[in-house]
Every structure is written in C-alpha cells, then in structure tokens.
Amino acid sequence: MIVAAGLVGGLMAMAFIPMNSQAEDVKKAPPRCVNGPGIDTTVLDQETILAEGAGRGGVLIKVDGCRLTPFDILVFEYRGSVQICDPLDVQLSVRQSGVGGFKTPCFVQSVTPVSAEEVKTLRKQKYQRTDR
Does residue 107 lie in a domain region? Predict the structure, then answer.
C-alpha cells in the first residue's frame, strides 16, 4: 500500500515537470496567427511582407506572381475568418499607386510566425530589390 502511494505520488510529480516547461515554451513562442483587420504591413522586398499583430509578434508572408514595392496598396481578402495563419487564409492583391482600380493578384506561398523582437528588427530593414 505504501509502495503504491509512493509510486502514484512519483508519477504525479513527473507529470507536472513537462507541463511547466511546455507552458514556458508556449510563452516564448511567437503567435502562430495575426488578426487581419488590425495588422500593420511593411514590404521588405519584392516577395516578402511583414504583417504585424498588436505588439505580440507577426508573420512573414512570402508571395509569388507579383513584384512588391513599398508604394503598392495591399488588398487583403479573407477566406473564412480574418486570422492569417497559413497561405489559404488570405487572397492578396496589389493595387499599384497611380493606376486606378486595377489589382494584380499575388499568390501567397508561405506564412511564417515571427516574435515581437524579430518584428522590431525586420521593421528597421530597408526595402531590397531582388531582381538586380
């Protein structure tokens, strides 16, 4: 009886250790998604957009099929919810400045979460042309 109680107590103690470390990992991990309507966007290069959440981190959106510039007007159309978690969540188009009404569709290739610290660093990055 005493052995069984000790065994159960030991198993219970072991069960709590991984849960605490998992909770710490969850706190450190960047949010997997951003809420679409409240995002701030920065075009980093011709294929990459930084979409920032409300101070909690953001996502890098890699696109194909259009060449982005910092002057483009980005048009996000959401599928289902307004959360951007993966490429299927949003249809992205570019309305070029100076060209009225015409939208060029972009194909979202990937959505990668980034931490709040990475967002601060990336936001300072200057726009880079990749077709030189």
Answer: yes
> What is the C-alpha separation between 78 and 89, in angstroms, rounded?
6
Give residue-wise pLDDT tens across range 108-126: 999 999 999 999 999 888 8
Strand ranges, E, within the chain: 34-35, 40-45, 48-52, 58-64, 73-78, 83-84, 90-95, 103-114
Residues 66, 82 share a domain: yes
For residues 48 and 94, state if they share a domain.
yes
3-state secondary structure of 80: coil
pTM exceeds 0.70, yes or no = yes
The SS3 of residue 10 is helix
pLDDT in tens, 55-81: 788 999 999 999 899 988 999 999 889
